[in-house]
Amino acid sequence: MAMMIGIILLIAGFVLVGVEMVVPGFGAPGISGIVCLGAGIFLTADSIEQGILITVVVIVALGILMTMMMGFLSQKKFKSPIILDTDVRADTLIDSSDLTYLLNKEGIAATDLKPAGKGDFEGVELDIFSEGQYIRKGTRIIISKVNQKKLMVKEL
Fold first, then answer.
1. Assessment of whether the complete model's pTM goes beyond 0.90
2. Using an 8 Å Cβ cutoff, are 151 and 138 in contact?
3. What is the mean pLDDT of residues 126-135?
């Protein structure tokens, strides 16, 4: 009976470690898998030599499982939850010279500016910076200058 429970624990351990290889981070499946593998080895081994042999077999099997999972995850057909599959196109990036069209645009402070915050300009919320002073939420503001990629504002 102990041998059967040990084999079930080994199988459960392999499944849980396999799940851990797919899920980002180290969490409950990995810890549970390690515990199941350890308990499975302990319950199936009759002697220390047999325990060492089973441990070596488990480690080799985990290496094979990891290799198979890496091969499976590297295929383009499979969508991995931790790999970004969208490309950032160069034509979508904003250069600081492109922000000059916002000069003298009036808006309302959407958050308190201490000195950074957000401003609402004709329904578009932008990250803005005050020119050093504290500006309360709801205050009318104007974009006074563009400093690199920072929009500097002052009260109206």
1. no
2. no
3. 88
Distance separating alpha carbons of residues 98 and 13, to the nearest angstrom = 56
CA distance 126 to 105: 12
Per residue in 93-103, pLDDT (tens digit) is 555 557 788 88
Instruction: State the DSSP code for 113.
Output: B
Query: Nearest to residue 120, comparing CAs of 129, 138, 128, 108?
Result: 108
Asked if 18 and 65 touch (Cβ cutoff 8 Å), the reply is yes
CB atoms within 10 A of CB 73: 14
Strand partners, 151: 146
- Token pair of 14 as six digits: 């392999």
Give the per-residue pLDDT at 119: 93
DSSP 105: -
- SS3 of 6-61: the string is HHHHHHHHHHHHHHHHHCCCCCHHHHHHHHHHHHHHHHHCCCHHHHHHHHHHHHHH
Residue for token pair 């059967």: 4
Euclidean distance between CA atoms 90 and 97, whole angstroms? 15
